[in-house]
Structure formats: structure tokens, C-alpha cells
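DATA SHEET
Item: assembly model
Revision: 1
Owner: S.N.
Input lines:
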Amino acid sequence: MMEFSTWDIVRNLLLAARWTIVLSLVAFAGGATVGLVILFLRISKQKAARVFAGGYIELFQGTPLLMQLFLSFFGLSLLGVEVPAWLAASVALILWTASFLAEIWRGCVESIPKGQWEASASLGMGRFEQMRHVILPQALTIAIPPTVGFSVQVVKGTSLTSIIGFTELAKAGQVLTNATFMPFTVYGFVALIYFALCFPLSKSSQFLERKLNVAHRDH
Amino acid sequence: MGYVFDYSWIGEYSGVLLKGLWLTVWLILVGATFGVALGIFCAWVRALGPKWARPIVGAYVELIRNTPFLIQLFFIFFGLPSLGVQMGETQAALLAMIINLGAYGCEIVRAGIQATTKGQFEAGWSLGLSRIETFRHVVLIPALQRIWPALSSQIVIVMLGSAVVSQIAAEDISYAADFIQSRTFRAFETYIVATLIYLALAILLRQLLKGVGWVLFPKRSAAR
């Protein structure tokens, strides 16, 4: 039987943490893209689009991420293809992230005074141009702190993908626990690595929020 | 080809689902009660408690908020026994939920407390209220009223997050779903049903918390 030193445990966990980071980036980038589409639907002039986006957000925020992962895993395989865990995990995380980002950004867009819409409309801009040149640039500054803050939830959310068999940090922790019989040490280190990933994000979100608030007070 | 959906198993397994539903409901009712109480206590310590205790509570809050619930659960259930603290899966699940909600609740309640101006404290004392009485009537209740919507959504998030307690074999809704799909081989349909139960539960819980807010904070125009 192989002996594990503390360094072996940490080294293996750090190697697995790469996949946590990759999956987080995929989920965040994909979620931002889909989220932007949902945002446009949510604030659209068409009632059907608004209802669809509202239902989408309610569905993904009102059900557990774990169930979404299972449905993605088993649902995709209904299409008759062998689904690798990373694909099911990415799909579920992207859809889940999108629902939260769309709702966060909607709040930011709605906080832009109505006069801005009217002013840009009076310049003859179409709805897309208004968003592109007037509303989004202003909403973006407001949106940055909560968006960075939500990225912490995405990183933590990736831990659930271990349950459908994707090997990232949490899964590596389980495997190492089974090999070493040292759950206290292993899960302690797992928690510390997650903390090292999430804490800087949380702090920078708080920092940005304070900085932006100061900017607001100056106006 | 084409997949034929089959929900004929529901009748046979409705008992299993109901049992799972009961545990999820029990966990969130008990967990939310103690979690909110812990959150209020921690918020009091951070805002007004003894100076030496503040960084300890601060570290607890940051540690919990920046690690996944699943790892907290595993640490409590698998890690703590090596320190001699052993507990069943239901207790471990409940404890993890309380600790988790306590940390988030602390930050939410603290935000409400910080909105109380110093003048209100002084007004409370000048009316002859003790420190504790001032905290309760002047600071805490208005603070809770202000942050009740945020606290409610956090409670719903914890309920949805509780789906992972099936991973330590606590027999909640998702555990029931795992069990059923291993018997019927109808994984997709089973998880659809489980997901819809969670959705209904989330909607009901939100309404329930709205009602609790109504009862706890009947119109208090003086609160602000």
C-alpha cells in the first residue's frame, strides 16, 4: 500500500483544483453570454419574451443546482449520445449561472434613469443601439461588484459536479479520503483551497462596491 | 427511435417521495430557526459585542461564505469523527445547514443593524431602556424588518442547497430520487418529479416567509 505524505495530498488537490478553475471559467463565460440573451428577453418590449425569460429565471433559481446537474446528465443522454460528465456539468452550470446573472444585470439596467432611454430614443436610436451605446456602458459600472460577488457562487457551485462524476477539487478530496483514511486533513485542505480561490473574489467585490459608492456620492 | 416517458412508477414510490419531502421540510424549518438565531447572535457580536470576539466571528463568517456547502457537510460528517465528534447523517445535515445559514444571516442582519443611526441608540438609552432592551426594540426589530426579504431569499437558497445532504445518505427528496431511479431505471423522469417538488417547495417557502414577516412585523411606521 502506498503511503501519502501531507505534501502528496496537497499536490494532488492542487492538480485537481485546475479543473475547478477551468470549469468555473467556462461556466462564467458561458453563463454571461446566455445571461445577456436572457437579460435582453427579460427587458424586451414583447410580452412573450419577458414571460419566457421570467419563467427561465424562476425555474433555474427555484430548483437545486444538483437536480439541474442530474437532469442535464440524464437528459442529454436521452438524445442517444454518450455524455461525458464535463459536458453535462458545463451545460447545467452555464444555464444556472445565466439565470442569476440575468437577474442581477436586470436590476442594474433598471437602475438607469428613464430619462436616459427617452433621450437616446429622441436621438433616433433603435432599442439595440440604446442598449449598446447608452444603457449598458452605464449599467456596467454598477454591475461589476455584484457580478464579481456572484462568481464566488459559481466557484462553489462547481463542487457539486463531483456528484455526477466530474473530477475536480471536491471529487479529488473524496478519492484521497478513500485512499488515506484522513478525512479531517483532506477536507480541511480542500476547504482551504476553495477559500483561497473565493476569498480574493469576495474581497474585490466588496472593494469595488465601496469604490463605486464613493463615486456615486461625489455626483 | 424515440424515448418514451414513463411515469407509472409514481404511485408505487409516492411513499418514498413523501418521506424524503418530510425530511427536507423538517431540515429547513429547524435549520432556518436555529440558523437565523445564530445569525442574529453573530451579528450582535460583530456590531456591538465584546471586542475580542469580533474577529473570531468575522473569521467564521468569511470561512463559511467562501467554501462550498458540500465540503462543509463532508468536513462535519467525515472529518469531525476523527476529533471524537460523531453524529448521524441527519444531525450532520442539520448542523451544516445551521452553520451555513448562520454565517450568511450574520452578514445580512449586520447590514440591517448598521443602518441604525447612533442617535437612535442614544434616544433609547435616554428613555431609560437598558442596553439589551435598546438592542431588542430600537436596533434589532427594525433591522430585521429591513432585511427580512434578503433573509427570506437566503433561507430559500439554503433549502435548495440542502439537496446535497443526500450525499451523506440523509434521506431527503434527492435521496428518495436517487433510490427510486436505481430501482426503476427511469432517471430522467424521477429527477423531473423531484425538481418539480423542489420548485413547489421553494415557491411555498417564499410565501410562508412573507407571511411570517407579516406576523412578526405588523405595520411599524415608527420603525424607520
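QC remark: The domain at 27-167+217-223 of chain B is CATH 1.10.3720.10 (MetI-like fold).
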